Each structure stands twice: as structure tokens, then as C-alpha cells.
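Worked example 3. Consider a protein that binds nicotinamide-adenine-dinucleotide.
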Amino acid sequence: EWGENLFKVLERKELAPTEYEILVDAPRIAKKAQPGQFVILRIDEQGERIPLTVVDTDKEAGWVRLIFQVIGKSTAQLATVMAGEALMDIVGPLGKATDIENYGTVLLVGGGVGIAALFPIVKGLKEAGNHVITILGAKNAELLILQDECAEYSDELILMTDDGSVGQKGLVTQAMEEVFQREEISMAWAIGPSIMMKFCTLTAQKYDVPIYVSLNPIMIDGTGMCGGCRVTVADSIKFACVDGPEFLGEEVDWDEFVNRMQQYRPEEMMANDRYEK
Ligand code: NAD
Ligand code: FES
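Given these inputs, the predicted complex is written out as C-alpha cells:
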């Protein structure tokens, strides 16, 4: 359903250096979106399609909250769209929703800008009656986003930074070890850089705890047609846009995924270079 034209940006905020939050007027999507789902937006007719997780919604006010990091030409352009201006297209909600139920005690791990995609799952699992333990990691205090929001829906919140500027100094996987040693965890989720999700999976496997990860490969159409978001899961080809974005970590072919994510980096940086000049 492309072409439901002009989605007004109601608010825009810089959350951290190069990380922005926008509230977009999109009542139909706000009504339907579930935790784990995403949208694909286009700024204008020439624009690339940008996939972004739906971080939060207000069904009555009709807005969706989106958070993005400037990593290339398109996201740099998105950062220039101000409150009061409009986006040409938003399609969604896309992808499978998170399986929200009462599991007992759950562990949620978010890293960097991946915390934005983790938050709706934290909220959904808390509202479903789980005992929620959340670990958030970032390079430093400035880059640690949605701390208050996650605290509101967590029974326990552990903060980790690479430099120790807030919480404990260390990686999220160190905090995971500490939690697994003292708690009986029924189910876990990890969202962040691919290398983080790979190591979170290995850590959860050590303790026999199933863990979901959210894969964010390059997406184009978001409907399973273009094949751009192809990933190998449980030895078969899956499309992150329709079969995911969540998959069981132990079934993901991490070497292939991490490799493919790195391949796109140089092209993205080149496009960004041209945009800035
Ligand atoms: P970052 O590099 O600052 O990492 C965040 C945290 O991840 C670190 O503080 C650390 O605790 C943990 N981490 C990193 N490497 C680790 C390792 N080897 N072992 C254990 N833990 C490790 O995060 P950032 O710069 O905000 O990350 C941006 C990346 O996140 C982009 O590459 C983007 O594609 C990805 N991302 C993924 C999703 C998703 O849905 N999976 C969503 C948004 C962003
Ligand atoms: Fe095209 Fe998934 S984005 S198949």
C-alpha cells in the first residue's frame, strides 16, 4: 500500500550525537503496529527506502515514534526533516510481531541504537506480566538512549558502557553472565550491532536459554520480493522482512550475516560522502 501521501512530522528531537527521534502522524499504522514490527519510509520521490522499527505508538493521537542513527546518505537527509514538514511515504506495519506472552522471567539486552528496537518488546513483555530484567549497553553515557523509558517497564535495569561513564564498565555479555548465574531465565532477546547479537547468542547458549535476535540487513521492498534482506536461518533461506525480523539466535548463520553487513559499509560511506559535498 504505497502512496498514502504526506505523513507529517509532529516532533523531532536529537537524542544523542547522530541519533534522532521523530513522531510521525500515521494513524492507520499507529492502530495496527505490534512490538517487533517496522515501517519503511521514503522522504521524497527520489529517496531510498529506509526501514525503521516502530519504537512506540499512540493509537488515539495517531502517531508513531521512530528513532534512527545517521549512518548514510538517506539517514543524513532524514535528519534534516524538521517538525511541521512531511515525509512522502510510510508503509507498514511490516514483519512479524514479537511473540508476547507471559514466560516468567525474561532477559532483554539492547546495544547502542538497537535499544530503540528493544524498547517496545520490553514494554510489551512487562504489560503481559513478565518479570523483566533489562541490560542496556552503549559506548558512553551520552549514547545511552531510552534509559528512563526502559526503567519504567523493567523490574531490574542494568547499564553497561564501554568507558564506564554510566553504570558498569564492560560489555552487555558480561552483565548477561552475571544474570544467568543468579536467575532462572525462560526467554531472552538481544538487539544491537550484529557482532553483539552473535556474542549474546553464544552467552545464552552456554546457559541453555533460548534467545531471539532482530536482524536488520539491507531492505528494499519489504515484501519478500527483492531478496535484498536474505539471511540463512536453520540452514534455509529466509527473508528478514517477512519471515523476521526476529529469529532464534542459535539458528542464525552468523558468519554469513556479519560478513554481509560489513560488505555494505564502504558503499554506504561513499554515498554519504557525496551527499555531504
Ligand atoms: P555500539 O557499537 O556502541 O555497541 C553497543 C553495545 O553492544 C556495546 O556497548 C557493547 O555492550 C555491545 N557490544 C558491542 N560489541 C560487542 C561484542 N563483541 N561482544 C559483546 N557485546 C558487544 O552500538 P551502535 O554504534 O549504536 O551500533 C550501531 C549498529 O547497530 C549498527 O551497525 C546498526 O546496524 C545496528 N542496529 C541493529 C538493529 C537491529 O535491529 N538489530 C537496530 C538498530 C541498529
Ligand atoms: Fe526485499 Fe525483504 S526487503 S525481500
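Take a moment to read the result before moving on. The pocket of nicotinamide-adenine-dinucleotide (ligand 1) is lined by residues 111-114, 117, 137-139, 160, 162, 171-173, 191-193, 195-196, 199, 214, 216 (CB under 6 Å). The chain has nine helices and 17 strands.
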